[in-house]
Amino acid sequence: MKEKKKDSIPSSAQSEAYRTSDKISEQEVKQALLRSGYLLEHRVEALLRHDDWYVEANSAYHDSDTGKSRELDIFALKLVSFSGGTGDTVFCSLLAECVNNPQPLALITKSENYASQFGSDIKFMLDPREIVVPDKDPILVPEFLGLNKFHHYCDGKIATQFCSFARKDKGKTNSEWMALHEGSQFESFLTLIKALEHKLTTFTWHEGKHLRAEFMYMLLILQGELLDVRLSDSDLIIVPASHEKYRRSIIWNGAEENYIIDVVTEAALPKLLKQIYEEAILIGRAIASNAERLRENIGLGVSAPSSKAE
C-alpha cells in the first residue's frame, strides 16, 4: 500500500498567516450575492414554475468552440397544444441568461422598421422545416404559416448594437464615463446562441407522420436598467425601456446566421412571457390548420441545422 504523504508543518509565520487570512464576512457574502445574477436566476426560475413551465436551471450545452460542456442559466419548456387524434404537439421553449447589470445596458435602435423581413429569424424544431412548392424554391415553415403577421420578431424596432458604461479609470469617481461592450454581456449573448444551436443540432428527426413542433425564444433578463438609444439626425434620444429586441448576425459553419434575442428587465418579464405564450397559441392554431400539408412534407429535403460558430 502506498504511504500517504504527510502535509508539511507550517512555520510560526505561516501559522499566523493562516489565522489572519482574508475571509469574507456574512454581510460581505450577502452583498456579493446581491451584486451577482444568482438570486435573479432563482427568482426567474420560481416565476416560470409558478406559470407552469418545465424548468431546467443551469442546463448543460456543448460549446462548439471549446468542445467543453457549459451551462445556460435557464431552459424552460411549455406545452402549447396536443391533438389526441393525430398525436401532433406544439411546444414553446425559452433559453435565458440572467444578468445583474450595475450600469444600464443600452440598445441602439434605428427609426426604420425592417422587422417584417425577419420571419426567417424565427427559430424552431420541426420536421418538415420547409414546404416543397412545385417549380419554386422551398418555403420555410414560418413563412408558409404566415407567422410574420403576428410574431413579435416581425414588428417594431430591432437593435443591432449594444453597449454598457464604465469609468475610464476604475475607482476614480471623477473619471469620465466610457461606452463599451462589457465582456460579460457579450458572453451572455453568445451563450444564448450556442445553447440554441446545441438544441437544434441534437434534435432527433423521428420517422412517422406525427408533427412535433418547438418554437424557441432567447431571453437576456436584466436586474438593472435597460435603455433604448435612438439615433436622430441631430441628437441621441435616450429612453428608459423594459423590453427591446437585439439582432445578432454571426458566421455559423461558413454561412451567415441571424438571431433575435429579447432583452427584458425582470419587472417586465411576466408581460413578455404572456406575449410569448399567446403568440405560441396562434402558432399552434396555424399548424393545426395546415397539418395535412405539413405532414405531406415530412422527411422531404430535411437539412439538419449547422453546428459550429466562426
The rough form would be described as: globular
Question: Structural class given helices, strands, pairing?
Answer: alpha+beta
What ranges have pLDDT less than 50 throughout 5 or more consecutive residues? Answer: 1-9, 302-310
> Main sheet, how many strands, which sense, barrel?
7 strands, mixed
Number of strands: 14
| Mean pLDDT across every amino acid position | 85
Order of helices and strands: HHHEEEEEEEHEEHEEEEEHH
Approximate strand percentage:
25-35%
Provide the gyration radius in Å: 24 Å
Percent helix range: 25-40%
Count up the helices.
7
What distance separates the N and C termini?
Answer: 51 Å
Which keywords apply here?
single chain; 310 residues; alpha+beta; 7-stranded mixed β-sheet; 5-stranded mixed β-sheet; 7 helices; 14 strands; 26% helix; globular; disordered C terminus
Reconstruct the topology from this structure:
Blueprint: H1 12-19, H2 26-35, H3 38-50, E1 54-62, E2 69-82, E3 89-99, E4 105-109, E5 123-125, E6 130-131, E7 139-140, H4 141-145, E8 161-167, E9 177-180, H5 183-201, E10 212-222, E11 226-231, E12 236-241, E13 243-252, E14 255-265, H6 269-289, H7 291-296
